[in-house]
Amino acid sequence: SQLTFRNGNKRIDFVLIWETKPTDKKYESKKEIRESFERNLVKEGLQLEWDIQEGRHLQCTMVHAPLELLTRYAGILKIRMPIEEEAEVTSNREMWDMMDDAVLKVLQPFQLDPLRVPKIKKKFTYPYDSTKTYLLLNRKLYFLFSHATRSRITDYVLRRKEYFKPLGLKTEYGIKRLLADSVYNAAYPLHEGSWKENSRMSMRKLLYDNWANWRSWYKVQPLNYIRTYFGEKIGLYFAWLGYYTYFLIFPSFVGFIVFVYGIFSMGDDVVSKESCDERNNFTMCPLCNKLCAYWSLDQICSSIRAMHLFDNGATVFFAIFMSFWATIYLEMWKREQAGIQFLWDLRNFEEEEEPPRPEYFTRKAKSKYVKYNKTTKKEEPYFPFWRRQIPVHCASFSAVLFLVAVAIACVVAIVFYRISIITSIYMMNDELLYQNAAIVVSITAACINLVVIFILNFFYTKLAILLTEWECFRTQSEYDNSLTFKLYVLQFVNYYSSLFYIAFIKGRLGSQENYLTVYSGSQRQEECQGSCLTELCIQLAIIFVGKQLIQNTLIEIYLPYVFVWLKKKLCTSREERQLMKHYKPWEKDYALEDVGSMGLFNEYLEMMIQFGFVTLFVAAFPLAPFFALINNIIELRSDANKFVTQLRRDVPIRTATIGIWYDILYGLSKFSILTNALIIAFTSSFIQRQLYTHVYSTSGSLDGFVNNSLSFFNVSDMPENVAPLEVLIKPRYNGTVFCRYQDYREPPWSSRKYKYSAQHWNMVAAQFIFVLIFENLIVLLVGLIAYIIPDVPYKLHQQMRQETILTHELVLETELKRAKGSGGEVLSKGEIDDIKTKVSEKMNNIIKKVVVVGADGEGHGEPTGKPARHVGDLKENEGFQHALD
User: Fold this and answer.
1) Within a domain: residue 848?
2) What Å distances lie between residue 291 and 443, 519, 712, CA to CA?
3) What does pTM read for this prediction?
4) Where is the composition biased (Basic and acidic residues) (predicted)?
5) Are 200 and 222 in contact (CB under 8 A)?
């Protein structure tokens, strides 16, 4: 593909696309603005070439950044340039190192072919200084600027270059404003070559073959190549997603073991045996008013057996494990991120000053409020704080609260659906339906809830964007943070509200003699048959798995291919399709989708919702991490494929962290400790069983637990509007005097009839004590773990010190020789190489001293003792040159 100017020796670093529409009323004005902007670009030092063809709808301005401009802005932006290959630190091999080699042999099938994806070595770097070019690794400066760096510098110039606006007789700034005003239709760097099978090898083709191709789903990611091609922001997203996916292997395995344990221990469960034994003859009270008859507990035997799969002793262990896992994962990610920052020269990264958003200027220009600007000495429009900004933000906040109320109202509506349907099922004379009524209603309600969630999400996204646009933030980061807050709050309520209802509200309002009723008292609140944990598991599984199948598999993978196929078949003729084969690179890229300002926003948001499912309610669904792992393997490759084949190449953006998303992960990990403690204490029967075994059981076992957990109710005390119709009562229940219900209340023959019993208050006390101990103990332990695990690995500290010392020594030695031996002249390559050799030898001795100084607690305070080997330590593999050994 032709990626250069016509002379073949000037690389195209950016393209600006614009339309030829003489019928447009503003065509001449836009043309003048475009010419003004491009003249200023040439004055700045950029070189332009035009691809204009008569009769073509779109035209192109190609931009090339020459070396003079690159070096000038490299100094302004303090871009770091390589000065030396990574120096080796001599050390004795340890047992852990040999174990690493053994593990690497086992993991060899997952590695990338080093011949196809060569390893990229870490280079020591130094902020570019035009007076110290003799330090650079390669004297040919042109080859030290990567394609991503060239695009970033070009974009920096485009975003800040002014232009003259003839209609308003004023000066405006930046390509973003020109795009907003439709002076240009698009501005982007070109993809490097084609990704298709028969195309010549390029960076894009390499990424497709070894990363974005579905055949490479089990291979590790070439992160250095991703960073080189797409920039640090996208590289960090895929590094985080890959690390998160890798970490899900551990809870997936443990959760699967917990699930298998529930299956194999089902036959030994005393509660299931007692509930399913017809000889116990537990006659249960009606589950609805008048239209429901008495029933036997053994009728829901299958539901009680299924409940044991998730409500057993291993569930508590798994909840504790997941609390530790979330904390360890976040701490290890900080270590991994520190290594990435070192490898990608992001340690001393400073955010560039953001230019204002074009939309901000547009809305500000329409403001009716003006004031005198002392700097420009002109009357200018502005947004008054009290009269405009405060009312707008208050109205926006109120709108978000209203949307939250809408989500909660939808949950309430589904609750009414559940009440109506379960009453209808109980009216049917069908034994199979009667026995599985709770499961049928849970499944159908969860499916309806999933559909409602997708519908609400569609409107929530549109409304959140409208509200954030209305607030009119000055910079893109302020805009993104506000939108992130709104959308995450709305989606949190939308996805999780039904789960909170089942876990902590359902069946807990009212009592047997005084139920909470709806529909003018004709129907009453629904109850949990056996345990709410089973229904919580069903709800969680359907919403979680269903969301992943619909959104990730159908919407993100197959739907784009359907749209592309329809576009080719319906929107283009055969002649046009033939012409498309001969499109120029900028035309092919223009046909791709624009990444947009929200870029990775939806990808991160989707993973935050998943992380909430994996951590907040994992006690109810131990298989959640396993399904998340499967989803993320697919998600990672589908996102990679999308960025390589379906999206235009985005401007490489430097960033050192994943930003606000880490704070959301941290908050979810802490909140999950509380939710899992509450689920174990109040939703599962774990505390009830433990209290009965150790306090009320005469044998110290669960024998008699079911009988103990069911209270008595005298059917003669049942209100007339609740008592079942006689025609519905089966012969086996004729003459029933007492029916049973799940609660701990005094029997009808007690002086405190139907009041809470002492066992109930003991159980409540035990539940709160458990939550208190669980919450504080886990918080204390995870805090201790976070304190013990340093944010930066020990060996990485050594490498950082090594880089700093090498850089300083190299500069000092070179400057000294220049001053004494060369009289200030530029040193030859041989002289520079001699200095580098000398510094490398000297540096190893210094490094040893640095380690010793750190061990006695003085000097720079490096961690002491032997370095701990853990999953966070960086290893060198498949094109991702790491910092250790």
Assistant:
1) yes
2) 23, 14, 21
3) 0.82
4) 870-885
5) no
